[in-house]
Hints:
It is a single chain. This protein is α/β, with parallel strands linked by helices and about 600 residues long. Helices cover about 35% and strands about 15% of the residues. Among the domains are: about 160-350 and about 540-570, Adenosylhomocysteinase-like (Rossmann fold), CATH 3.40.50; about 360-515, NAD(P)-binding Rossmann-like Domain (Rossmann fold). The protein has 19 helices and 24 strands. Strand 16 (about 380-385), helix 12 and strand 17 (about 405-410) form a beta-alpha-beta unit. Helix 4 packs across helix 7 (about 250-260). The protein is globular and about 65 Å long. It starts with 7 loop residues before the first strand and ends in a 14-residue tail after the last helix.
Amino acid sequence: MSVQVVAAKMAEVELKDVPSKELATVSPVTPKAEEQAVIKNEPNTAVTSSVSPTSESTPKGDPCPLTASPNPVKMPQASAMKRTDPQQNGGESFVNRDGTVAEAPRMKKIQFADQKQEFNKRPTKIGRRSLSRSISQSSTDSYSSAASYTDSSDDETSPRDKQQKNSKGSGDFCIKNIKQADFGRREIEIAEQEMPALMALRKRAQGEKPLAGAKVVGCTHITAQTAVLMETLAALGAQCRWAACNIYSTQNEVAAALAEGGFSVFAWKGESEDDFWWCIDRCVNVEGWQPNMILDDGGDLTHWIYKKYPNMFKKIKGIVEESVTGVHRLYQLSKAGKLCVPAMNVNDSVTKQKFDNLYCCRESILDGLKRTTDVMFGGKQVVVCGYGEVGKGCCAALKAMGSIVYVTEIDPICALQACMDGFRLVKLNEVIRQVDIVITCTGNKNVVVREYLDRMKNGCIVCNMGHSNTEIDVASLRTPELTWERVRSQVDHVIWPDGKRIVLLAEGRLLNLSCSTVPTFVLSITATTQALALIELYNAPEGRYKQDVYLLPKKMDEYVASLHLPTFDAHLTELTDEQAKYLGLNKNGPFKPNYYR
Length: 597
C-alpha cells in the first residue's frame, strides 16, 4: 500500500455526495500507536492519502506505516461549489447540485514524535562543517584522477610529517598512505594489459639487462602507466628514484604500490609548491646514491640539479625529456653553451607527436571537462589557443561534439592548417566576451592574462592543456577583490565583485592528468619511446652524442610503432628488392629521414 501524507499549508479536500454524519466516521489515516503520532486539529492544514489498488499491506520497514479507510472517499465533480462560514473560524462547507450542504472534513496536521525529535537535533557548527565536507567529498570522488582513492581519505596530515614503512621495513619514500598499495597494484595490472609494447620490451630485454648499473632519477606524472614504465626499467636492470612533475596528477594508490614494491617515490596528490621541490630534492640528494640518467617531464628536475647540484652532471650520461616546455628549456641551455650532457628530445619524436599529443588529447580533453563541469558541448562556443598537435586533438574532439570552435595561432603554417580543417582563426580579444570555454595549449606564458579574464562572460570555463601552468595568469586572480570558491576537487569559481564568476579548472595546470585520466594505450607508445631513449643514451659509446639535444633515431620510432601493431592484428606490407632499390631504402627501414616529423 502506498500512502502519501502531506502536511502543507491549506491543502483542500472537496467531497461530494457524502452525508455529513458519515464524515465523522471516515478516517483518511489511522496512525499506529507505536509511531507515537501527535495529531493536532488545525483549520488550515490537511491530510491527503492515496491508496494503491494493488497493495494490501504496508511494507515492513516503511518509515511512515499508515492505514487507510476501507471506504474510499468520493471526490466531488467540478461543478460543486465551495462556501465559507465566517462564524466557524474559516471552516468550509460545500454546496452540491441538489442544494444540499456538506461540511468539509476537519483539517488535521500529523507530526510524528520520532521525526520531530530527529529534526530538532540541529547540527552544531562543527557538525554542519563535517556534514558539508562529507557530502562535498563524496561528490568529488568520482571526479578525481583515475577514480583515485586519494580523495576518500580524511587524514589531512602532511606525508612529510609521517613515518611510514613498507612490508619489508623500508621507509625510503614519502607518499600519502602506504595502506593503499593493494588498490594501486590492481590499477597497475589493468594498465599492463593496455601497454603491450612495454611488456614486450620487458620480456625481450630483461635477460640482457641493458640498463644494468643505471641509476635513473625521474620526474614525471606518477600514474599507473608510469608505474609500468618504472617496473620495466627495473626489470631491465635500472635503479629508480621518482618524484612527480605535477602537484595534482599523482595517483596516491599507485605511489603506494610502487613504495611497497621497493621504489623510492616522493609524491602525493595535492602537494604545495614547497612540497614539490622538497620531493625532487629527496630524490636527488641522498647519501650513497647518485644518478647517472635523468628522465624528465617539464625540465624541473634538470633545472633543480643544475641549480643545486651542478657537480652531479659529471657522472650523468644523458637526459631524456618528454614535454614541449622541457625541450624548450634544453634548447635554451644548449644555445647558451650550458648544457653539460647529451639530451634526447622525446617530445618531437614522431611516435610522441603523432600519437600522444594528438590522439591522447583528442580523447582526454572531453573526459577532463565532463568530469569537472558536466558541461554539454553541443552548441558551445570554444576558443582553443594554439593549433599544434595538442590543439589539433582538442579541436577535432570538440568539433565532433557539435561545438563552435575558434582557434588562435602565431604560426602561419599551423594557422593555415586550422583554416583548412574548417576552424575560424581569430585573435583572442575578438571572441573573449562571447565564448563559453577557453582552452590553452601553446606551451607559452601569459596567453590568457587578467585583461581577458575580466572580460569573460559569466560562467566561462577556463582550462589549460599545455604542460606548464604559466599559460593562464592565475596569480593575477589572487587579489582581495576576487573571491575563490572551491566547488569540487580541481574546480574553483572565481567571483568578481559584480557577481560574475568564471570556472577555473586545476588552477591552470594540466587538465587531463589533473582532473581525469589519459588513454593507457597511447601512453604505452610514449613510455616505450622513453625507455628506448634511456637505453640508447646509457649504452652509447663515448663520442656518439655530444653536449646537445638530439631527436630519437627514426629506426627506434618505427620499432616502437611496430611493437603496437599486433594489438590491432595489423599486417605490414614488405617491400620487394626492386621497390626498395627504386626508393633507395633498406627493406627493414628506416622509411623516413631523420628530419621527418
